Amino acid sequence: MNTAANANLFSRLFDGLNDTSRLAIEKADGTRISYGDLIALSGRVANVIVARGVKPGDRVAAQTEKSVEALVLYLATVRAGAVYLPLNTAYTLNELDYFIGDAEPSLIVCDPSKADGITALAAKVHARVETLDSDGKGSLSDAAANTSTDFTTVPRAGDDLAAILYTSGTTGRSKGAMLTHDNLASNSLSLVEYWRFTKDDVLIHALPIYHTHGLFVASNVTLFSRAAMIFLPKLDPELMIKLMNRATVMMGVPTFYTRLLQSPNLSKDSTKHMRLFVSGSAPLLAETHREWSARTGHAVLERYGMTETNMNTSNPYDGDRVPGAVGFPLPGVSVRVTDPETGKELARDTIGMIEVKGPNVFKGYWRMPEKTKEELRADGFFITGDLGKIDERGYVHIIGRGKDLVISGGFNVYPKEVENEIDAIAGVVESAVIGVPHADFGEGVTAVVVGDRKTPLDEAQVLHALDGRLAKFKMPKRVIFVDDLPRNTMGKVQKNVLRESYKDIYKK
Ligand code: AMP
Hints:
By secondary structure, the protein is of the alpha/beta class. It contains 15 helices and 25 strands. The strands form 6 sheets. It has a 9-stranded mixed β-sheet. A 4-stranded parallel β-sheet has the order 4-3-5-6, sandwiched between helices. The protein has a 4-stranded antiparallel β-sheet with strand order 16-17-19-20.
């Protein structure tokens, strides 16, 4: 699979590039960065980080706002044979203390506003600190400006680490997922083909780049295709709709789609230049999928992946993009559904644990051999923690995280099944069903509901509407109304936050 002389992802991305003048990235202010510029800039930054003592295999941690320079830091780190470690910009110093202590980077790049606090943490692991702000300015760029663009890409084996991404850690400590050069290259190349990327594509890139979606899926796929991306610091519905008249692809989390749908400017006409809309990182409601099709004439292509595995499944480019399903395993990826207790493979259409295997699957958790052993089976399948099924046509469906399963009175209640029924009630926008400690039942099925603020709706009406549609043991014991569900930046509903907020409601 690796045709470059060197298995380093950087070589695979750029060796053999003919036309260095091609546009790679356009900034929101219109500045244009060619492929040649990107390679030259990465050479400068690679020289700086090596001068700061970064050796092949060392970790370079980055907590930086989104900028082209931050993406260059990723490319330069990989080019230098080091391991890129992006950190969510929302992490506080207290949280960073854990990540820095665990990963022991030799260099940390952060926003100038955090430099003092981070320098104190860095001292504990003898790391150097450089700064980079949201405009791409800071000590890193200053040093790079005075450095040569020449840099010989450090040879790496396919199995060497290119990046460590920490999982969000909603239960227990965040774990560092170790991703190899082969993991990243194989997955991107497979997506380029599956989603028919070519050099003529222009991607609207409004995702954060500390997460697998914006960093690997969006950026690597674009760069492997020699396509261009328009780099926006964040979701900006009106600007994005305007850009759609010269872009061809958008990748987003479900929140992008719901927010864009709120604009009267989204239409068949405003999206007629686009060829593909991709959604992932959290479930896209079937209703959002249908609304989007009706309004724009485009069927959103939903795919499923995670930090540890890159992308696993995708709806087809040609053929049915089924609302509520995440499609078929990507070429070279195997997906199976197993009994969570016994690990035995289950029949089609039966809900169980989703397991995946392929060149996309990570090497293990950083310095957590026990956790790695628990979640990676001897035959190479990774236990994802997601419950789902494979239907008769081979489409994979995600039912939810295993840890979100509610066990009430000894019965398994799949929150999604209850949420689907609640969402179908007139006046409900969305809902989240959680298990909350309950003296008699172990966990009480609890529904948290967002109404449309127009239709009067109370607990009794919701329960009445569900009566006869759900078995008694699946019926919510309480229905709570809220204005919004708590979500993280990737659009995932934070059920752990809800469980914490309502943990005492059944206490007498
Ligand atoms: P992360 O590691 O932050 O990318 O989160 C991965 C998790 O997001 C998966 O294990 C799933 O639970 C969820 N996820 C990703 N894509 C989808 C999708 N298309 N539908 C439902 N859940 C998804």
